Amino acid sequence: MEFLFFTLIFFILYSYVLYGLLLQIMVWIKKFFFRKKKVLSNHHYLLPDVTLVIPAYNELDVIDNKMQNTFELDYPKEKLRIIWITDGSTDGSEEYLNKNYIGKNGYNIQVLHQTERKGKSAAINRSLQFVNTEIVAFCDANTYLNKESILYIVKHFENEKVGVVAGEKRVLAIDNTAGEGESMYWKYESWLKKISSEFYTCIGAVGELIAFRKSLFEPLPEDTILDDFVLSMQIADKGYKIVYEPNAYAEEAPSDNEKEEMKRKIRIAAGAFQCMFRYWNWLNVFKHPLLSFQYFSHKLTRWLLVPLFLPLVFMMNCYLFFEYPEKSIYAQLLFAQLFFYSIVSIQHFAHLSSKWFRIPYYIIMMNAAVYNGFMRYIKRKQSAVWEKVKRSTI
């Protein structure tokens, strides 16, 4: 049991800390022995045509800000096509866009709308039928891109091995537990995606900002929950790279409160189990050993192993503490765990403002969401149609 106990601890540390450190070391070694080739300069005549697709369900309140942000992108308007897809919206988004933006400002703008709401995966599949450029980018209606984002994205597609470019998701820090926890998590996640991309490939991309080659796209099953992740991993499974570009970023406000953030995390967890059971081929080490290694280390350990191991480690620690009282290591580890969970409990009831309380609480909240997500998945209660999360006001 002692060997098993320390093995479980190792995997927990590996998932959150050691994997990132291992990747960083391998990246340093790679850079020492291999020089990175220069990529293109950003002259307009070299820039490809790009279609920017904006899925929007009842996003009338953000349309003007989103369009203003899009018009400010540093990309030739004659090379940028904009498609809004408002399927299922009942707030007048389609009419508002057609009245105020179609045929104006010199941009090629199209609005796709149907009354039936089938979810984002179905909307992605439908919108791709209207895309006539090889490079297509997706971003959310409630996120705002930096001016140079498209320029930074398209340069990577000169490399024929690149199939997807993942932009950076930046969550603005708001003074609440959900906001600070989510912001800190995405800073860590962004660093991990960056070094993953430098090592071999980024594992997945987020829908806040993702670009890919249309010719590599495969229609998504309409019940897909994590559409952005599945879309990018399907292309990676074909042997193409997912490149992470931190200079192309999308900013958004965090979830308004813990309840809203928990709702989002449970949905992600349900989607994670859907991916694990549906796409076993992503773990085919004989087909793509590096991709499988990174997928297991970055995602499966967090989705499956850590949530299972955390309570097991605590229970085994209690047993070993009483079974081997002469071994101080078990007393020390048990004290550390009790201290950690005490912080989490205090934060749960007291809602303190210190990040030293909020961040541990957020970690446990993420792992608790996995159990809820698993139950939703096996009971088939998680719909692919996403219920919008309330965001904090910036």
Summarize it.
Helices cover 51% and strands 13% of the residues.
Molecular structure report:
With 394 residues, the protein is an alpha/beta fold. It has a domain at 44-264: Alpha-Beta Complex (Spore Coat Polysaccharide Biosynthesis Protein SpsA, Chain A). It contains 11 helices and 8 strands. The protein has helices spanning 2-33, 63-71, 93-100, 120-128, 149-154, 177-199, 227-237, 258-278, 289-323, 328-350, 355-378, and strands at 50-55, 80-85, 108-112, 135-139, 144-145, 162-171, 209-213, 241-252. It has an 8-stranded mixed beta sheet with strand order 3-2-1-4-7-6-8-5, with helices on both faces. Helix 9 packs across helix 10. The protein is globular. The model is unreliable at 39-45 (pLDDT under 50).
Strand arrangement within the widest β-sheet reads 3-2-1-4-7-6-8-5
Helix content: 40-55%
Task: Compute the separation of the termini in Å.
Answer: 50 Å
Measured on Cα atoms, how large is the radius of gyration? 22 Å
Annotated CATH architecture of the domain at 44-264: Alpha-Beta Complex
Q: Count the helices. How many?
A: 11
CATH topology of the domain at 44-264: Spore Coat Polysaccharide Biosynthesis Protein SpsA, Chain A
**SSE string, helices as H and strands as E:** HEHEHEHEEHEHEHEHHHH
Shape: globular
